[in-house]
Each structure stands twice: as structure tokens, then as C-alpha cells.
Specification:
about 525 residues; alpha+beta; five-stranded mixed β-sheet; about 15% helix; elongated
Length: about 525
């Protein structure tokens, strides 16, 4: 696996691929620096990108106090599009802390790092995770005020450590004793608040012998590594995470559709090192299946439900989803017709079945509301749509708790989403997928007519598994583009959103996937283009 490590500082740009490092001076504007970074690396083919950035980082957002223009430069998106690989950005001090943690044998105890360069920054690593804080500012020891009457800092405060110990500060006053005193206070503050296993000091200015002479007795050690090494560790960690999410394989470079056959309303279940996909009836099966190790190369599987429940008629078996149970068995939830569309359940010992529906009635069937379709078992709850649009009524997405065995609905039933409150939804909201992330609940759903290009995916944020939910104003977040017509009925796998999309001739709905990232608590879909 090849990783690209980038160190973007106020003075230098450095890049490393396979141990070969190249560098150049940083242009004075973020847009120019971004172009220079791309030019520096060239056309390298890589599997992951790690970036050490000399400024504030929060998610994909970056701001430099020393090089203007980065806040509008689109760093992460540009790199992601350029190299077709996952990108992880960290503040350079955080990357340096990660490098020191790696050089120290990756201990579980907290480790701290101070970088003294164009600015003064700090980073803290706990158990292999960078401590970023609520706004990406954790560990920024360079902006600790050590003299309230001191000179003004670029951050707007007075007398920060950075005004004494940074490269520009030392160039102005040359007072290494004052710089060492400020750094001593920074080290003591880190020890008092974090109690790290060690505090390392690095950066370009920290190589000056006179600074280390002045630092005698401070108790910090010289850094063993560099922020470029930290960027490489960052890339390796994000690559490891991607590989883990993909069961040992990774969808690094692929061309959509990844499964180019009619495979509507997909759902993906990850078991061991294999992904199992399920789809609406077709190709001779009531419930189509396929399997893959990497989400890209798929092999058709058996009919997961060769015999429907006694309550159901064949020919309309839609939108199946499967849930794993603690006892090692699996429950398949599927839509079928009993004169009205209803949702049933079936049990099997294997992810691909055969599933057996031994029940004489469906799990849920709202006949007066048009029927019930599109099941989603998630986190001990059950979500579905009443098929109101089939009889000219409002469509809702409903939520109710599942019993522990996954075979019954218990407790109150609530409508948490309805069509018509956003224009793009048209007469339909359907295909619910509820996920929990960072303590928040996100309901993804499809809207408008499934058979035309207006079909799309949006989301709502919810107060809990039973709502209430509020539609996102930026909806829809996945819509027709490139060769994907009417994309919808999504699910999730690893770092990807998985969905179907019509081909240009509208003769089949094939399986597509796009990268799903999160920015400021909001999902961002990189695709279908």
C-alpha cells in the first residue's frame, strides 16, 4: 500500500511517497500553496493521504494564521479528487505528536509534543487518537498567555508563548532565555493538565543549539521525529481504518456501477470478511443476493427467500434488509403483497439463507394507509414507510421498537418523517436508513418518484431513535449526476454510501457506491460524479 505524506507549513511544503521526500518554499497565498503542493507531488498513485497542516484544522476545514487564503482553498476536497484516495488532515503539532507516539512504541498513556517553528503549536495523543477538542484547538499551547502586557499575537491575544519562542519572534528579539522561559511554562502547563508520559519539543527552531542551552532543566526531550513522519502515520492509520471497514479489502479505485446488473433497493450486511448485498426481486429470485470482499467485485448468490411466507403473493418482494442476532442467526425483513404491500420477516442460519418465514401474518401492514414497505432494522428499532402514495394519501416514515428477538414490534409507534415539507420530496418519502453517529441520530431517506431522474436522497437529524426529526436544509445530498439517474434507496458500508441508480436508458437500476464523509456534523456525499 502506498501512502502520500504532506507537510504544509508557513515556510516549507514537503511531500513523501515511498520514502522519497521533496520540498519547496511555501507561496504566500493559500491558493498558490495548494497548486504548488499538487505540482510538488505530481501524478503519484496512492492509497491514502495524510496531511500535516501548519494551522487550525477542524474536520476538513483549515485556516492558517501565517498563510492567508487556506480557508477557501478546498484542501481536502482537492486532494481527494486528485488522488481518488481517503484524506486525513491534522494540525502539524498534532501530526508531530502522533509521530512521537509512533516513535515511542505507540504507548497507551498520553503523549505531548510542542513544535517551535514559524509558530508554536502543541499536540496531545491519547491511545493513538489525537485529542482535537470541540473546535480542533486542544493542545494549542503556543497561545497560552504568559505575559498579558506582552506584544500582540497573530491570534489577537497579547503575550502568548508564540510571541516569545517562534522563529519570527526570535528573529525580532533574539532572546533565547525569554523563549525558553515561555516554553518552560508551556511544558509545566501540559504536565499539570494532561500528565503525559513525555513532552517532546521539535520543529525547525528547536534545532538551534542556543535554544536547547536555554532549555536546560525544563524536563522535555528533543523530538525524535518530524511532522512529515506524523503525516505518514496519519495516512497509515486512515488506510488501516478503511481496510478494517472493508473486511480486509478496500474500495480504493473503482468505477461505478460496481455491480452492473438490475439490483434495486440494495442493502449491505458485513459479516466477517465478507459483504452480503440483498435486493428487490429480479433475475429469477424473490430476494437477490451478491457477495464481495471489497465492495467492488461482486459475485451473484442464491435466492435468499426461495419461498415466501404463507400470507404473501409472489412477484412484489421489495427492499429486503437483514439483521444479525446475538445467537448467530439472521432475520430477513422483506416487503411482499397480500393484496396490500406488507412487511414480513424470515429467519436463517446463514447470511444468504435460505430464510424461512414461518409466520401466518406479516410483521406490519397498514392497509388503510396504503400498506407498509421498505423495512429498516437499526439499533433495536424498526423503520418503514406507509405506501400512502399508492392510494393518494400522505406517506410517512414510521418508527417503533423491535423485540429482543427481532420478530415483533413493541411499544409506541411514531411517524417521524412525512412527504411534502420539502419540494424535492414530491409525493413520496421512502427507503429509510437510520444511523447513529457521535450521539446523534440521522435518518436518510429517498424522495419523489422512483422511476425518474428526480428521485434523490436526503436526510433529517433526529432527537432520538423515535424522533422528532428535522429535515436538513441542504437536501437532497445525493441526486442525478453523470451516468447515475435517479439515485436512491441507500444503505451504508464502511466509509461508503451504497445505493441504486438507473442507467441512462432507464432499463435497470445497478449498484453504486460513493464516499461518505462528515463535516461539522453533516453528511457529505462525494458523488455520484
Amino acid at each position: 500500500m502506498r501512502v502520500l505524506a504532506l507537510d504544509i507549513g508557513g515556510t516549507w511544503l514537503r511531500a513523501d511517497v515511498d520514502g522519497t521526500t521533496v520540498q519547496r518554499q511555501t507561496p504566500g497565498n493559500g491558493r498558490d500553496a495548494l497548486a504548488a503542493t499538487i505540482e510538488l507531488v505530481g501524478e503519484a498513485a496512492v492509497d491514502a493521504v495524510g496531511v500535516s497542516f501548519g494551522g487550525r484544522v477542524h474536520g476538513d476545514d483549515v485556516v492558517s494564521l501565517h498563510v492567508p487564503g487556506w480557508e477557501i482553498a478546498g484542501l481536502a476536497a482537492t486532494l481527494r479528487d486528485r488522488y481518488g484516495a481517503p484524506v486525513r488532515i491534522a494540525n502539524d503539532a498534532n501530526a508531530g505528536a502522533l509521530a512521537e507516539w509512533d516513535a515511542a512504541g505507540r504507548p497507551s498513556e498520553p503523549c505531548a509534543y510542542i513544535t517551535v517553528s514559524t509558530g508554536v503549536g502543541g499536540g496531545i495523543v491519547v491511545g493513538g487518537e489525537i485529542l482535537e477538542g470541540a473546535h480542533g484547538l486542544a493542545g494549542e499551547i503556543g497561545h497560552l498567555v504568559v505575559d498579558p502586557d506582552g506584544e500582540e499575537c497573530a491570534c489577537g491575544q497579547r503575550g502568548c508563548v508564540e510571541t516569545f519562542a517562534s522563529g519570527p519572534a526570535l528573529a525580532r528579539h533574539g532572546d533565547y532565555a525569554a523563549a525558553a522561559h515561555a516554553l518552560r511554562l508551556a511544558v509545566e502547563s501540559l504536565r499539570a493538565v494532561v500528565d503525559p508520559m513525555f513532552v517532546a519539543i521539535g520543529g525547525g527552531v528547536a534545532t538551534a543549539p542556543q535554544l536547547w542551552e536555554a532549555l536546560a532543566g525544563v524536563g522535555a526531550r528533543r523530538a525524535r521525529s518530524t511532522s512529515l513522519h506524523g503525516a505518514r502515520v496519519l495516512a497509515l492509520l486512515v488506510l488501516a481504518l478503511l481496510l478494517a471497514g472493508c473486511g480486509g479489502g478496500a474500495a480504493k479505485t473503482f468505477r461505478n456501477p460496481v455491480y452492473n446488473r438490475d439490483f434495486p433497493d440494495p442493502f449491505v450486511l458485513h459479516v466477517g470478511d465478507t459483504y452480503y448485498a440483498y435486493a428487490t426481486n429480479g433475475n429469477g429470485s424473490n430476494v437477490q443476493t451478491a457477495s464481495s470482499k471489497d465492495l467492488v467485485h461482486w459475485t451473484a448468490g442464491p435466492d435468499a427467500l426461495p419461498k415466501l411466507g404463507s400470507w404473501a403473493f409472489p412477484g412484489s418482494t421489495w427492499a429486503p434488509e437483514v439483521s444479525a442476532r446475538p445467537d448467530g442467526t439472521y432475520v430477513l425483513y422483506y416487503t411482499a403483497s397480500s393484496g396490500t404491500q406488507c412487511i414480513g420477516r424470515a429467519v436463517a442460519k446463514s447470511p444468504q439463507g435460505p430464510f424461512v418465514d414461518g409466520f401466518d401474518s406479516p410483521l406490519v401492514c397498514q392497509k388503510s394507509s396504503g400498506g407498509s414497505i421498505d423495512p429498516d432494522p437499526s439499533g433495536g428499532y424498526f423503520y418503514w414507510k406507509n405506501d400512502g402514495n399508492s392510494i393518494g394519501k400522505t406517506t410517512h416514515i414510521w418508527a417503533q421498537r423491535l423485540s429482543a428477538d427481532g420478530l415483533r414490534l413493541v411499544g409506541p409507534r411514531r411517524a417521524i418523517e412525512r412527504n411534502g415539507d420539502q419540494a424535492w420530496e414530491g409525493a413520496v418519502v421512502e427507503g429509510p436508513e437510520m444511523i447513529r453517529r457521535g450521539g446523534r441520530y440521522y435518518l436518510f431517506y429517498s424522495g419523489d418518484a422512483y422511476n425518474n431522474d428526480s428521485y434523490a436522497v436526503g436526510y433529517a437529524t433526529c432527537g432520538g431513535p423515535l424522533g422528532p426529526c428535522k429535515d436538513a436544509p441542504e437536501n437532497p445530498i445525493l441526486k442525478t449526476g453523470c451516468r447515475a439517474h435517479g439515485p436512491g434507496h441507500n444503505t451504508f458500508a464502511g466509509p461508503y454510501i451504497v445505493y441504486h441508480a438507473w442507467n441512462p436508458a432507464h432499463t435497470k437500476r445497478a449498484l453504486w457506491l460513493s464516499r461518505l464523509d462528515w463535516k461539522n456534523g453533516k453528511p457529505v456525499v462525494h458523488g455520484p460524479c
